[in-house]
Amino acid sequence: MAASGTTSSAAGRTAAGQIRHGRLGRSHPVGALGKLVGVVVAVVLISTTGVAAYALHDVVTSTKPPVHLAQLPGHTATPLPSAPAGESVGEVNMLVIGSDTRSGQAGYGDAADQAASQGAGNNDVNILLHISADHKSASVVSFPRDLEIPIPACPTAGGGYSYASSQDMLNTALSRGGDEAHGLQCAVLTIEKLTGLNIPYAASVTFAGTAAISTAVGGVNVCLATPIVDDNVTPALNLSAGEHTLVGGQALAFLRSRHGVGDGSDLGRISNQQVFMSSLARQLTSSGTLSNPFTLYKIAKAVTENTTYSDTVTPSFLLGVFQAVRTVGLSNMVFLQYPVGEDPTNINRVIPSEYAAQQVNQALVADQPLVLTGTTGDGASVQPSSSASPSTSASASASPSTSSAPTSTPTTSAGSTSTVTLPPSVTGQTAAQKTCSKKIQY
Fold first, then answer.
1. Rounded to the nearest 5 degrees, what angle is found at the Cα of 110, between the Cα atoms of 104 and 111?
2. In whole angstroms, what is the distance from residue 13 CA to residue 378 CA?
């Protein structure tokens, strides 16, 4: 869904606590695998001895032309990690977006829906992967598509620059570039402006990529605390409570679903997506997926055919990221929703929740691990058999806070980097924590 530009200022606007984002009339699609999109390709490169030469060549020739980031304002060429050790990958900031474009994506919606988003489309999913320089922690931050924030002037396909907005929807950034490459550049510049980070790595994934990757891994196992019924996605969902293995189009529909999870808002959908992503992370690391060269080939083929990378995302970089993620471990990988509050001028939009967002931004810039004290969000609940605490991260084991006052002073664990304990309004989970998707019953 696109939104018209606005010139009103967002300065000084705050919203405290967790809010229920207004329900919009149509469901919006997502790309979906966050950081794992690049990681699985790296695994193939490690396993070339088990993959035929023609298969590796087939994967490489499927890769789309890269998007240039190094020449953007404030960017410099980033030193590449060495392979195979990959120790020099250091700190990683990588933005992965999911485009809602219907161009070349048959079967997603009716004619009107198909016409609603063509070309570059909109960046309806925005996920930042931050891996600490010491590889002891990772944060996966989801930014709501309806987040109203400043969007800078961005390079366009015609050689000029798009207009800057003091406040507009985040998901308009991709369409401002005029094509996928320049749109990805604009999304990077927008998240950099919001967080204060330098983001040298980026990728975008399509509908088809999400469906193909879930098929390549043999399906993703998810837990449903309540039935999920949603006729606003394709294919329609009618899933009973319990365990399900989602494959292809059904996995995509699950990730796109908004009406079937949470309170029907995009914020509930984000926590539902975190259920899927954390389950996928556990599945990849605990099964034989990553040791099967034929499965790896299918994953790599699915990724490279449907994903566009920045020119900084090289095979050696991906190898370094893969090794860093393995070092971090599941319990040290925190999924969180960027802190937002309701826009006082529009209940269907959100704005940054000033204090909590500042806490997240400062921690990411300072490369500090994040500790959650809030809930898993409206679209998820802790699996009854799971003993993992939503506030537990790799670098600290803090109990969920019962106070409304956030912890502003970072805590320190023996032998670890100082950590930042986020206020209870920030929702999320660790990758190790087993959660179930749910629909709020009124």
1. 70
2. 24
pLDDT per residue over 30-84, tens digit each?
Answer: 333 333 444 344 333 333 333 344 454 455 555 677 788 877 877 765 544 443 4
Q: Tell whether the model's pLDDT for residue 407 goes beyond 90.
A: no
Residue 16, classed as helix, strand or coil, is coil
Please report, for residues 12, 88, 300, 345, 425, the alpha-carbon distance to residue 15 in angstroms, rounded to integers and kept in the order given: 10, 40, 42, 12, 11
Residue corresponding to tokens 């003091």 = 166
Give Cα separations from 381 to 134, 156, 275, 439 (angstroms): 31, 42, 9, 10
Distance CA 331, CA 429 (A): 9
Instruction: Return the pLDDT at 287.
Output: 61
Name the DSSP letter for residue 48.
G
Neighbours of 55 (CB within 10 A): 19
Please name each of the domains of the chain with its CATH number.
36-437 (3.40.630.190)
Residue-wise pLDDT for 171-199, tens only, equals 999 888 888 889 999 999 999 999 999 99
Cα–Cα dist 347/26, whole Å: 16
CA-to-CA distance for 234 and 148, rounded, in angstroms?
A: 28
Q: Which helix (H) or strand (E) holds 250?
A: helix 248-256
- Collapsed DSSP state (helix, strand, coil) of residue 115: helix
Round to whole Å and give the CA distance between 411 and 396: 8
- 127-146: b (≥16 Cβ within 10 Å) or e: bbbbbbebbbbbbbbbbbbb
- H/E segment holding residue 129: strand 123-131
The DSSP bridge pattern shows strands 138-143 and 333-337 to be parallel
Contact yes or no for 53/299 (Cβ under 8 A): no
Cβ atoms of 91 and 133 closer than 8 Å: yes
Residues in the chain: 442
Q: If you search the block for the tokens 């950590």, which residue do you land on?
A: 419
Q: CB neighbours of 87 closer than 8 A, spacing ≥ 6? A: 81, 320
Element holding 293 (H helix, E strand): helix 293-306
328-337: string of b/e by CB count within 10 Å (b at 16+)? bbbbbbbbbb
Upstream peptide bond of 390 is cis (omega within 30 degrees of 0)? no
**Alpha carbon distance 246, 253 (integer Å):** 9
